[in-house]
Amino acid sequence: MFRDNLPFDDFVGIPVSSRINNLNQDEFLLEPEDIAEGTLPKLSKVMVRKTLVISKAVITKKYGKLTPERFQKLHSDFCNYFDCCANS
User: Fold this and answer.
1) Which domains does the chain have, with CATH numbers?
2) What is the 3 state secondary structure string of the chain?
3) How far is CA 21 from CA 1, 45, 56, 75, in A?
4) Do residues 56 and 25 touch, judged by C-beta distance below 8 A?
5) In this model, does residue 1 exceed pLDDT 50?
6) Distance between CA atoms of residues 78 and 63, nearest Å
7) pTM for this structure?
8) Segment 23-33, tens digit of pLDDT
9) What is the pLDDT of residues 39-58, one digit of tens each?
């Protein structure tokens, strides 16, 4: 999650996939050590182009949390892809 969207109670989600044999320019590796809480069973990728907004009301399970360093890198990758941050 990049930012809570109060008062709308939703967040930005970026899909994760373990199918890493072919990385596109908007896909970035996510390694088990990038997870601060929870577990990532194997090397995976995040797919920035498939970013979506999700209502917190429909979330039934939390799988994990990125380390602060990996979160910052993903934020930078997101901003670079969508050209939305001046200093990413």
Assistant:
1) 10-81 (2.30.30.110)
2) CCCCCCCCCEEEECCEECCCCCCCCCEEEECHHHEEEECCCCCEEEEHHHCEEEEHHHCCCCCEEECHHHHHHHHHHHHHHHCCCCCC
3) 26, 10, 32, 23
4) no
5) no
6) 21
7) 0.80
8) 999 999 999 99
9) 998 999 999 999 998 888 88
